[in-house]
Queue: 2 jobs
Job 1
Amino acid sequence: MDKNFQEEKFTGITKFTPPLYEQRYQFVKDLVGKYKPKKVADLGCADCRLLCMLKFCSCIEVLAGIDICASVMKQKMHRLSPLPVDYLQPAERSLTVTLHHGSVAQKDPCMLGFDLVTCIELIEHLEEWELKKFPEVVFGFMAPSRVVISTPNSEFNPLLRGVRLFRNPDHKFEWTRLQFQSWALETARRYGYSVEFTGVGHPPRGMENVGFCTQIGVFVKKYPLTSASAQSEKPAEAVYKTVFKAVYPSLKDEKYLRNAVVREVTFTAQIIKQSLLNHLMSEHKEYNDDPTERKSKFQPAVNCFSEDLGKLVVEKSMESFVNGNVVYIPLATIFSFPRVNRLCGTFEKLRKLVAGQVTLSSDGSAVVFSTDQEDN
Ligand code: SAM
């Protein structure tokens, strides 16, 4: 049994702990953690709760929600917007979140290119004609590597208090395991997928024969679609309306990378400068002279730096020094610090990103500060 559901207790006849919807979302999250899709579309996303969870999965770069009801999507879509912390510390990955108003029974070019498509408690809301179109749209047109479909298992219904015909008045049908599996197997066969069945919401002890409360089919595409066939499927016209779009700040965007590098370079240089001045002050005490008058070279000691900065080998040519009241901190020294190194990748990139952003020596090889200058 999946460890996420081991702690589930069936408390009475209608309650699940954690709640059933959370178990469904957790199932999707685990799948994302396992297969690391970059582009995920949630069909029938309603109030975007699953999307809000998935935006924290660091593998995802494109997240889209589609629903026929614009007002339900708009209720909480602001939760999909970047937070102040996303601007203060932009992530390495890029992330774009989009919400589209439209029906899963219609094709739109914005549906193309996804790795994973989730349809959580959607199909039972579709009219007969929509359900007929649905496989062609999802498996034929979108054709992602994986599709997850969840739907109520009607065999469980007698264990749910207050359920007469269906669990929800908007449901157009509820299937037994055999009905769902027959539909899923036929759909998979027709569009070149394999499908495995599982579920969430365990039945109480002694009632295992009814199966999970929510039944789930995980479809995996057998053969990758060629780009030519994907192109030929592309409809000319967009039918969906985009109701929300958020582009998260990312270090892949040069503007945010430059800010992050300048911040890190300034921070690192300030620490080196402070260590150098402390060193000079201690020499001054020892020799009783003016520290700023001495042209002092300085090899910063590793223990001068906060531990998380870490430090690579500093060569002799990378020594920082004071000349008059100016402190020179070679860019090469700054580049040797892992955080700067990781952000820039190459020394050339570092030079390019800091050019015009921090004060450099005339040959551009060192960051310069006045010894009087306060830390900034
Ligand atoms: N997937 C969400 C979840 O599990 O929390 C919400 C499921 S809700 C029960 C079903 C959603 O499907 C509703 O938001 C409804 O508006 C949407 N829906 C129904 N028919 C649709 C269609 N033809 N195309 C797109 N969405 C549809």
Job 2
Amino acid sequence: MKNMLVTGGYGFIGTNFIQYLLEESDYGGRIINVDNLTYAANPQNLAHLARRFSDRYVFIHANICSRETMAEVFDRFHIDTICHFAAESHVDRSIVQPDAFMHTNILGTFTLLELARERKARIELFHHISTDEVFGSLGDEGYFDEQTAYKPNSPYSASKAASDHLVRAYHTTYGIPVTISTCSNNYGPYQFPEKLIPLMIINARDYKPLPVYGDGRNVRDWLFVLDHCTAIWRIMKQGKRGETYAIGGNNELENIALVEMICDIVDERKRETARGPRQELITFVADRPGHDRRYAIDATKIRTHLNWKPMESFQTGIRKTVTWYLENRQWIDHIQSGEYQRWIETNYTRRGEV
Ligand code: NAD
Ligand code: TYD
């Protein structure tokens, strides 16, 4: 794995993964980060590493759907390994405007697979990052694992499911060496503040309403982003080619309990005596259409086959995360000043009608 193409490296997980590979892991090769800088990307995330690792890190501004440009990238940098994060990733956006999800998540993945097929002799691995949302929704009992049937419910999860099927098919039909990981909800530094945890931290900080969808009893299984990065790297190094690994944090929480916890931590850190406890900001709003009730992962396979387990407990991970968002105000202000603000204004107020 001398020349690794990382797609979507300026997004939340891609940023954390590139930092992990360069600063903490035993990876010694070169990283070529391809990102087309959508609203979710932030080039500042890796500015410090780009300088420190200038011989091992390159950024290319390109769209993964562009076959010609991506062919140039594959050949100019002698790509032998692909770690594919680039995607449209927000369920709410996929409900309002699904088009980009189909282009990037399905056609973008197809484009990369075709380029890998044409250069099969030198491709060591195509690792595809997917999500547990492809399995649909659980009731009160049970877990998703590698045998669970696909039953995606949102345009986002349906597009990710399509991409998973393509990756699997390219292994079976063409013998491309692939691995796939399906992981649960990530949280941690650099997550775009339209996702639940950063949105709640920032709104709580500013004493703004905390919009909880439906009855707030939906359950997510939270995984600290660095634990996700160690799992991906473990799979890339030791995972069996052609196989899928489910990655989970073993941290199931109802949304309402999580939001209350965030309120209490922000109160501890930024108490303003004139104002009441931040839990008073919680506002129940119209439910997301097709809202999956519960996600939970059984990570036995990656634990027993690859000896991986998450290191961060939710108690420590959420505190680190709150601290990061409170200390990185500029990062948030930069995002909130642009197009994102307009999206929130036009779409969040219309949520009930979608
Ligand atoms: P993100 O939205 O924060 O970042 C996505 C990145 O991909 C952005 O930098 C964006 O500019 C880039 N991108 C989008 N379209 C592109 C295109 N056509 N060409 C090149 N770059 C493009 O997403 P994330 O949360 O970091 O998620 C990364 C991957 O992990 C996705 O595939 C997502 O489906 C998967 N995943 C995420 C979670 C989670 O909780 N965040 C959970 C499970 C799986
Ligand atoms: P999200 O972070 O969008 O991740 P996903 O939909 O991929 O699981 O949402 C996590 C949970 O939080 C999900 O059940 C929807 C809920 N949610 C809210 O209640 N309010 C919000 O403002 C957002 C963004 C999400």
